[in-house]
Amino acid sequence: MRATKAIIHLENFKHNIKEIRRFTKPGVKMCVPVKADAYGHGSIECAKAALEAGVEFLAVAAVEEGVELREAGIKGRILLFSLASPEEIHDAVKADLTPFVFDEEYIDMFAKEALRQGKKSYPVHLAVDTGMGRIGCYAKDAASLARHIADTGILFHEGTMTHFATSDGKSQADCDYTKKQFEEFKSAIRGIEEAGLSAGICHCANSAATLDLPETHMGMVRPGIIVYGYDADEVNAQYLAKKGTPINLKPVMTLETEVCAIRPFKKGMSVGYGRTWIAEEDTDIALLPIGYGDGFLRRFAQNGIKVAINGKAYPVRGRICMDQCMVDIGKDNKEIQRWDKAVIFGCKEDGALQTADDIAKLTETISYEITTVLTRRVPREFCS
Predict the structure, then answer these.
(1) Considering 35, 48, 119, 306, which one is annotated as catalytic?
(2) In this predicted model, what pLDDT tens digit does every residue of 270-281 receive, in sequence order?
(3) Among 125, 192, 194, which residue's Cα sits nearest to residue 162?
(4) Which residue, among 74, 73, 88, 3, has the nearest Cα to 343 in the 3D structure?
(5) 266 an active-site residue?
(6) Is 230 a catalytic residue?
(7) Which of 59, 220, 300, 339 is the most exposed place for a label (fewest CB within 10 A)?
(8) Is 264:287 a contact under the CB 8 Å cutoff?
């Protein structure tokens, strides 16, 4: 196996699911998204682990992601978060993916295809836009669309959902907006029920709301990033501990590589494209076979990023290349030898000194991006 690899700790993945369950009441279902290759962690293996941990629903964003799970033998329920194109609806229905619907045309397209494929009753979830500004009907139209679903005669209104825009923020404005969204969602549900229809499984709680807003749990929660071991922005471990509801999340991924060469550099010598770093004194440079072609992005070097080698942090020097990067280990460092492991981020047990959250904060992004940008040429090694 290539030296640069991502170690996926499925035991940590299952541990996080168990930790999250402590925040929900008995009977509240859980949906775990495995979209974008399970945030870079490997969708098939994570899907299997989630179902083994008792998760009731999985979720994908693209039809091909759901089809891939089915072809791998995944039998669990799979929600389709994003919209399918007309050309994809056949495959979505064939794979028994449960779509989010929110207008008559899209409802009718699924009804027609379900009928054509001989389905007896095909489940859909009605999406309500309460302020996210993406997919969804408005609350005032929810009842009429629920009626339209029923009138197809073949679609089954299994659930109703919305998505929060600011639940991971703790400013007063963010909290007020989340409350407003939740009230709007409950209004949509009341409208459906007053029309004599069932709203089914109602769900709106993302990672932050799952941990911080128990009143929003309803029939199901949809924790995302926290399942993979990272904080939901301001609803983080420190905030939850102070609140009196601590959680112990564990990173699921460790990204590692190795020192493939050590080269002496004299004062005045430069490293990498553009000569952005010039040695101010004699030093040694360790070459690592990882670069932006793997997802270790070029811009990271501008933020003073470091890697861990044998328990100590060493800075990346110069621009990160497509396939390699260079690390300053100091002159005649006897603690580092060629072929030693270098850890970019991950679990302390693997020698990491930082997590994807730490890199995200340093590079002014979110942990989701740090893991999902890892390309397929980085092999995933699964530990259970």
Answers:
(1) 35
(2) 999 999 999 999
(3) 125
(4) 3
(5) no
(6) no
(7) 339
(8) no
